[in-house]
Design brief:
- The chain has two domains: about 1-65, no CATH class; about 75-280, Fumarylacetoacetate hydrolase, domain 2 (Alpha-Beta Complex).
- The chain contains seven helices and 19 strands.
- The chain has helices spanning about 25-30, 35-40, 45-50, 85-90, 160-165, 190, 220-230; strands at about 1-10, 10-20, 20-25, 65, 75-80, 100, 105-110, 115, 125, 125-135, 150-155, 160, 180, 185, 200-205, 205-215, 240, 265, 275-280.
- The strands form four sheets. The chain has a seven-stranded mixed beta sheet, covered by helices on one side. Strands 1, 2, 3, 4 and 14 form a five-stranded antiparallel beta sheet that branches. It has a five-stranded mixed beta sheet with strand order 8-19-18-15-16, with no helix packed on it.
Length: about 280
C-alpha cells in the first residue's frame, strides 16, 4: 500500500493511493485524522481492508501533498553511511553510525519548493531512503528491527554546507526551513521487497549525480534502528533518514551548488520518486 498526507479544501487528511487517485481514509476510519495516528493505533492493515473495491474519490492533482508524516516526533538522520560518500569526504571508518537530527519544520512534501536560504550559496543535495517507525521500542534487537518499520519513502537531505562546517556539529546546516524533501508516499514493506537490492539515484536537472543501492550502506537499516533505539525511545511516526551515497555537490570539482530553478529528483526504486524545485528565499 501507499499512503499519503495532504490538504484538500483547506482540511488536512490522509489517504491511500489507488488507481486514478486517492481514497480519503480519515472519513473511513472514525476518530483517526492523520497518518501518524493511524500508524500509532496499528490501523494500516485496517486501512488497506477499508479501501478494497473502492474507487478513487479524487485525483492526486486535487490535493496539496504534505510531508509523508507532517509532524514527526523525531527526525533522525545517518551521516556518512555509504562507502563512496565516506571516501569522498575523507572521513575515517567509525564503529557506530553518525546520527544528527532534523526539525519537523525543515521538511517539505513532494512537489513543494526546496528553499535556498538567502544567507548561503552552498545548498547541496543528498538523496536518501527514509523509514517511518510503525511500532515503537527501546533497545530493539537488529534481528527484530524491520518488524518496527511502517514503511519507506524517498528523502532529500538538503544541506547548507557552510553552516554545516561552522563547527563539528551538523545541526545548523541541516535545519534551514524548507530544505528537506520527504515523499511522496509511505510505501509499506511488502511493496519494497529486498531492501538490499533497492536502487537509489539522485538527478539534478535530469543529470544523474548519485547512484548506488542499499547494499552499499555501511550500517544496515536494522543496525541503524537498533542503535538509535539504544539512546532514545522510538515512537510510531518517527522518521530515520538512512544516509546518502557518494556524488554530493560539495565534493565535485568544481563544487555543484543548488540554484534557483534547479530540479532535484530522488528515485528509490519501489519506494517512489521525490521531486522538488529549488526556489531562492525572497
Amino acid at each position: 500500500m501507499r499512503f499519503v498526507s495532504y490538504v484538500r479544501l483547506g482540511r488536512p487528511s490522509f489517504g491511500a493511493l489507488v488507481d486514478g487517485g486517492i481514497v480519503d481514509l480519515a472519513r473511513l476510519i472514525p476518530g483517526i485524522d492523520t497518518l501518524r495516528e493511524a500508524i500509532a493505533e496499528d490501523l494500516l492493515d485496517e486501512a488497506a481492508r477499508a479501501i478494497v473495491g473502492r474507487k478513487a474519490e479524487f485525483a492526486l492533482s486535487d490535493v496539496t501533498l504534505l510531508p509523508v508524516i507532517p509532524e514527526p516526533g523525531k527526525v533522525l538522520c545517518v551521516g556518512v553511511n555509504y562507502v563512496a560518500h565516506r571516501e569522498e569526504t575523507g572521513r575515517k571508518e567509525v564503529g557506530h553510525p553518525t546520527i544528527f537530527t532534523r526539525f519537523a519544520d525543515s521538511l517539505v512534501a513532494d512537489g513543494a519548493p526546496i528553499i535556498k536560504p538567502a544567507v548561503s550559496d552552498n545548498l547541496d543535495y543528498e538523496g536518501e531512503l527514509a523509514l517511518v517507525i510503525g511500532r515503537g521500542g527501546r533497545n530493539i534487537k537488529p534481528e527484530d528491527a524491520l518488524d518496527h518499520v511502517a514503511g519507506y519513502a524517498p528523502f532529500m537531505d538538503g544541506s547548507v554546507r557552510d553552516f554545516q562546517r561552522h563547527t563539528a556539529q551538523f545541526t545548523p546546516g541541516k535545519n534551514f526551513p524548507g530544505t528537506g524533501g520527504f515523499g511522496p508516499a509511505l510505501v509499506t514493506p511488502d511493496e519494497i521487497g529486498d531492501l538490499a537490492a533497492l536502487p537509489i539515484e539522485t538527478r539534478l536537472n535530469g543529470e544523474t549525480m548519485q547512484k548506488a543501492s542499499l547494499a552499499d550502506l555501511i550500517f544496515s537499516i536494522p543496525d541503524v534502528i537498533a542503535y538509535c533505539s539504544q539512546f532514545t525511545p522510538l515512537a510510531p511516526g518517527d522518521v530515520i533518514a538512512t544516509g546518502t551515497p557518494g556524488g554530493v555537490g560539495e565534493r565535485r570539482t568544481p563544487s555543484v551548488w543548488l540554484k534557483d530553478g534547479d530540479v532535484v529528483e530522488v528515485m528509490v526504486g519501489a519506494a517512489g520518486t521525490l521531486t522538488n524545485r529549488i526556489v531562492a528565499e525572497r
